[in-house]
Design brief:
With about 100 residues, the protein is mostly helical. It contains six helices and no strands. The protein has one domain. The model is unreliable at about 1-5 (pLDDT under 50).
Length: about 100
Amino acid sequence: MSSEDTSTEALFLPQGNSMQQLIDTINPTIYESLKSAIALGKWENGTPLSPEQSDYCMQALILYEARHIAEQQRTGANLRQGSACADETTVPVTLRDLQSGDGR
């Protein structure tokens, strides 16, 4: 990949690069594009992510965040501490409830 080619799709073209080299090429703009692609399931141009691309994007996002983003600001950080929106009115629903049709 040339230094001029920094599109998110180009990051995942076969190049023989290690994941570490891939992470080194990610900048904040690409990081935001990866987050968006994962959330939407498609690239900025509308092309759907393949399951493999989605997996690679998630891996790259996690590794980038581990290196560059404060722990409390990483994706899913509030999930480890309990949901920020959980309160007394939250009703837990189990998988069994959903399967039986009692989704409350």
